[in-house]
Amino acid sequence: MSTFGGVVFSLEGPHAPTSLADLSKYVVATPDTQWLGAYQMQAYEMLVQGLQPPDGRGVLRVGGNQRDVVYAVLDGRAAVGFVRTGLLEEMAALKLVDLQKIRILNAKTWRGFHLHVSTTLYPE
């Protein structure tokens, strides 16, 4: 069975968020709040930790392309991005993003799963 999860990421840097608890201070990019792997998984992870997920003015909805979430973080329109697993690695393979400049928040490790992930894994 194939699984996937959600990723919470920012750019590396001294003023970048370091945990999910920091997100209330930053703008978060997502395609939209209805996307399972690019908002709802991350929001649920925050709720499980007793945190309020971003909403309202704290969310930059970039539309239907998750790559636009990454570009919004890279160009400074948002400090944090929510995307599904595999997207950052795919963009890195295409030389569209340098993973050395990306910080994964709430990083998790799952046996047999080798992609960056910030949430529980779900069946695809």
From TrEMBL:
Organism the protein comes from: Inhella gelatinilytica
Protein name (Swiss-Prot/TrEMBL): PhnD/SsuA/transferrin family substrate-binding protein
Record-linked Gene3D superfamilies: Periplasmic binding protein-like II
